[in-house]
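Sample 1 of the test manifest.
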Amino acid sequence: MERIIGIDLGTTNSLAATVIEDGPEVVAPSGENPITPSVLTRSSGNWIVGEAAVAQRLTAPEQTVYSVKRLMGRDVEELAEEIKELPYAVIPAQRKLVKVRIGTEEFTPQELSAEILREVKRRAETALDETVSKAVITVPAYFDDAQRQATRAAAKLAGLEVVRILNEPTAAAIAYGLDERKDGYVAVYDLGGGTFDLSLLKLSGKLFKVIATHGDTRLGGDDFDRELMTLLRERLLAEHPEVTFERAETQQRLRKTAEEIKIRLSGSPETAYTLELPECGIMPQGLVTQAEFEERIAPLIERTLASCRKALGAAGLTAEQMDEVVLVGGSTVVPGVRKAVERFFGRKPHVAIDPYKVVAIGAGIQGHLLAGGRRDFLLLDVIPLALGIETLGGTFSKLITANTTIPAEVAEMFTTNVDNQTAIDVNIYQGERELVEDCRNLGRFKLRGIPPMPAGLPLVEVAFRVDANGLLIVSAKEQRSGTAAEIEVIPSHGLTQSEIDHILEESFDHAISDFNARQLIEFGQTAARMFRGIEQCWTVAEATLSTEERQELRTQMDVVRSSMQGGDAAALKRQIDALGELTRPLADTAMGRAVLEELQIAAG
Amino acid sequence: MDLDLLEERYQQLTVELHPDFYANASKRQQQQSELASTVLNRAYNTLRNPVARANDLLPRLAQGAALDERQLPSGFLMEMFGLQESLDELLESGIPEEIAQTRTDLTERHATLISGLALHFAEAEATAPPSTLQTLQTDLNAERYLHRLLERFPV
Amino acid sequence: MAYSEKVVDHYSAPRNVGSFMKNDDAVGTGLVGAPECGDVMKLQIKVENDQIVDAKFKTFGCGSAIASSSLATEWVKGKTLDEAMTIRNTEIVEELSLPPVKIHCSVLAEDAIKAAIADYKSRSAASAD
């Protein structure tokens, strides 16, 4: 049975989980934090991902990328607000796509997410001591097709086969449902770093059925930070009107202080802060109370409750009918959020499962099921937003309505407008509004290969299918002639297959050079440690080795040194091994042994 | 229609057919499972919704007998046009209480029509007199006009 | 989908929207509905010496229904009653390039013209009595 791990690819943090003998567990190398911060920094042509990159947000803000998830599957116009606030450069690319520019290099959000996934994969592989190639990756339930496609492309770039794209609140519901095994209605309130989802499920026996979902893919803990940043900025300007916030460093210090205040306010009614701004030569201090914070974030929380009302309305249920409310996502530890949720549903929310880990755990369990490891539950999910096509006057004609259980399919007939027309263009949209301009254009598809006939005669049946991943698949057939019309979907926000392939090809080339570069650094460090050891026990060497042997050792050290200057990691490794051989006689002496042990450890 | 029984059967079948249990199977089996689940979901959604169910069942019950698909209760179209026109004014005037009242009235009328469908169906299934079938068809025709009116109210 | 400019034009700027006095003997009113979707359409003609001198409509329905009725009023103006009776829905489909799912909208417009003419004829017959 090939393992399928679960990965929660978050705005702020990412982590992996899988089922091991004792049950579902988050996976990380022993003794390490299982959470990989979704932060990456570019350093001399290489990526540093996770914890090590976090510190770089302050020191190298323009090279350090965070909140990539907010950019996934979105275009420049949609991201106008976000781009203003981000310290790194987000630039327009072809088809309104965005890229992140660092120095002279440019990266798609898919490539950046892929780096995070690669790191999560690497850490999981280290922890499990096996290769991982398949995964269940979670996305916000309210992610549209473009955002899901972008996530799948990222995984592909990271060398992961996505067996299933799973909705985050649904993943949490799996973990909760299997934990509690109680039938009834469950509301999952999922507030993460950058997204909000509310999913309503009905648990009955082994079936976990999503009834309705609603959300906001641009609302999360990041926005809480922004409110605190505004508060700090207002206070600072009242005292120091001369301070500008143009520098990325100043922005990032403000952000970091805001984050710290938010975290501390989860545990105490008030907190003091010191805003260190060495670049401005000031260090303002102050106090923020929970009440002040809650007042600032109240409109944001209200937006989440509006989503709750919409989902309940769509399901024809009331808040009182919920048998349980499960809190998911790091932002639900904010006391103001908990209070508001409790008030809205009239019951204390369920918090027994770690809100940071529950999504990954659920994904890990789903991966186990998909791998064939268990059959004791089944999850039925829905499409979050209606899918349809543009019709007359820019109106949106819904073909598959929101909250339809997936997989789902609808067929629609199309015909030609002029004689001998052999192609038809159709625009596909996703959303809940009446006009297409208020919905997201997923792409345009071109029906080709229609046999030449008088106008209106061809009947092309186009099937719109949403698979179990919530992804749209379009296929077409001309009914009169029986020929399968060719269909080509041109994504509006995503990468085309050939673009993905191109990036993959490039990254394979890079992978070899990246690997070599990393090995060169590692071997160089090994050699340096060996040199230190040899120098430390040189007196032993003088006593035990002949002049020739000592000369040979010195010569080999020089060979290693010059090999370190070269670019061939494998060659360097050979010279280091040869050096190791020459140091072996030193082990024969008692004095040398201790030093040599160190040498051997150093040489790995 | 026993909705509990429908739910139970749906659950049994979906557990047998769902793609989640075929992720490791051959490509062909995966496709079949995806297709079967899609069909099952569509059937379930049709059966669960009284109007969709009626629209699906009526032609089967009629067994080829010609039903007038345009027939409406007498004066109905005129009434609908009048309601549409007054709804234009009402929605523009924006008096929330009046809008809410009109909506409640129309919702009730719609619901009465739908519950009537079930009764006629029971009758039609037992004896299938052509008149009952035409009544059903007429009600279903009328339903769409009422549905259209209800759609105009803001959420 | 690529709709013809004409259809978008008729949809975004429909011609002849409104009503005539219903009990005017010179006016014929056709009220029709599409059970496929619940659209309702009222089309009125004003007749002088068997010639349609003016037409108005009001449609509660989708864009295609609005465009079809708008086009129908344009077409009947200036035609004799007999000429107007020959207008076919397929001509509307062709003129507006309606997609198959919207063909019933053109049927609705054709029905509305016929109903209006029939109404006018029955009224004038009644007033002649």
